[in-house]
Design a protein that fits this description.
The protein has 4 helices and 14 strands. By secondary structure, the protein is α+β, with helices and mostly antiparallel strands.
Length: 239
């Protein structure tokens, strides 16, 4: 597993998570459900002291927040228990600004908007929903249009998305609730993968927050080549 390090100091490690890998293993009463290598395996291999850091270090050492398997981008990891507590407080008090890029199906009419819909667990599934389900939690997502694109009879919109909360699948569920599913989303999308991307188009581009050393920092992960190529492919078809 090859992981790009964006920043590190004595307190934190910031990486650019590739698409296609889980942040940590998924466990049930029988143990880990998948035998694949996950990001926390790489973390422990290269930073063994992180093995004891976190609220459940045996399952998710150093992990303060997560990205979905197919979502790429900036992820910050705590290297000490003190840093973990500090970062966890930053996320819980909403002192962290997260910025994503998302390509969605359809033409988003508004230039910008805010989605305020509680997210719950859909009964009998692992899916999340804005409709009636179990354990609803408040969720807020802001978005603005970066670019509108078309290919033949299909319209697409490239969005900048800033979630204020951190619910599971939040961006994907909220955008789907508007009728604009994230391109390539197998769980909440309906139109498939027209261009053969092989993942959903969601990238954690920036993360801005105060570090345990007191400095306010912004970390940026460049748009992955496969996502940039997809945009160029759609743009070339409109010329």
């Amino acid at each position: 597993m090859k992981i790009e390090i964006l920043y590190q100091d004595d307190d934190v490690l910031v990486v650019n998570k590739p698409a296609g890998i889980l942040v940590h293993g998924i466990f049930d009463k029988h143990g880990q459900k998948h035998s694949e290598e996950v990001l926390t395996d790489w973390i422990i291999q290269h930073y063994p002291k992180i093995k004891t850091v976190g609220d459940k270090p045996e399952f998710r050492p150093g992990i303060v927040h997560r990205l979905d398997r197919e979502t790429s981008g900036v992820l910050i990891i705590a290297r000490t228990q003190e840093a973990f507590g500090f970062l966890k407080d930053q996320f819980q008090t909403k002192n962290v600004q997260k910025t994503y890029q998302a390509l969605v199906w359809g033409k988003v009419k508004e230039e910008a908007g805010k989605i305020e819909k509680p997210i719950s667990i859909k009964n009998g599934t692992v899916k999340r929903t804005v409709f009636k389900g179990k354990a609803p939690r408040d969720a807020v997502t802001n978005y603005k249009v970066l670019k509108r694109l078309e290919k033949e009879n299909e319209a697409f919109t490239l969005l900048e998305v800033q979630p204020e909360t951190g619910r599971t699948h939040q961006i994907r569920v909220h955008l789907s609730s508007l009728g604009h599913q994230v391109y390539g989303d197998k769980l909440y999308g309906k139109k498939g993968d027209l261009f053969g991307l092989g993942r959903h188009f969601l990238h954690a581009q920036k993360l801005s927050l105060k570090l345990p050393n007191g400095k306010q920092e912004t970390f940026t992960a460049p748009t992955p080549p496969e996502l940039q190529s997809l945009i160029e492919k759609i743009e070339s078809s409109t010329e």
